Amino acid sequence: DSGVTQTPKHLITATGQRVTLRCSPRSGDLSVYWYQQSLDQGLQFLIQYYNGEERAKGNILERFSAQQFPDLHSELNLSSLELGDSALYFCASSRGGGGYTFGSGTRLTVV
Amino acid sequence: GESVGLHLPTLSVQEGDNSIINCAYSNSASDYFIWYKQESGKGPQFIIDIRSNMDKRQGQRVTVLLNKTVKHLSLQIAATQPGDSAVYFCAEKPPLSGNTGKLIFGQGTTLQVKP
User: Fold this and answer.
1) Quick one: DSSP state of residue B83?
2) Measured between alpha carbons, how far is residue A109 from residues A9, A27, A38, A54, A81 in Å?
3) Residue B3 reports pLDDT greater than 50
4) Site from B23, B30, B46, B109 to mutate, A interface, most A CB atoms within 10 angstroms
5) Residue B103 forms contact with A (CB below 8 Å)
6) For A33-83, how does the pLDDT look when each residue is reduced to its tens digit (9 = 90+)?
7) For residue A53, which of A67, A73, A35, A65 has the smallest C-alpha distance?
8) Degrees, nearest 5: CA angle B51-A45-B69
9) Cα B86 vs. chain centroid, distance in angstroms?
10) Which of A24, B10, B44, B94 could hold B38 in an S-S bridge, CB 3.0 to 4.6 Å?
């Protein structure tokens, strides 16, 4: 157990729908990062939050949004889902610079 | 845009042999590099890191080498074991990322260990 908790582990939904992925960072970590991992794309950075505020943005679609709550957990909202959104979504946390600790991911399948 | 790449998508080695996984990075100003291991069905797991003021760093059975002249990073695994079978990613911290902590990941190399 890495200390980073992601729920749900698996999600199957239809095109056009909206889903919410949840992440609880490791205790004491203020930064949360979201990454998307598709088969041929590796790990693509989506967005980072630090202590409740957006800190950095990557290749995140406008249909996607995220937030970090006062208790530091984070949610990634994916809307108007398309088949191409099917991927593994990882959350990672860190205390500052340096390496991340990743969660075990949410596997999203859009049908 | 910036990218971190790995030279080989798949590496197959015999159990007990040493493994070398390579990575080429594009930005000479990157100052921090990490290797991650991802086993099937799991999230990436930190293996070892190195800062740009170092050429080599050793861990338990793993060594990371950094050659800034040719922008090359390698991960050496000694006495490779079946449990080392996984996908290995290198990652770099791009310049001007400040204190964001944002990392850029390469595509990954699959290490297969033959018994």
Assistant:
1) G
2) 11, 29, 11, 27, 10
3) no
4) B46
5) yes
6) 999 998 766 899 999 999 999 998 998 999 999 999 999 999 999 999 999
7) A67
8) 30
9) 12
10) B44
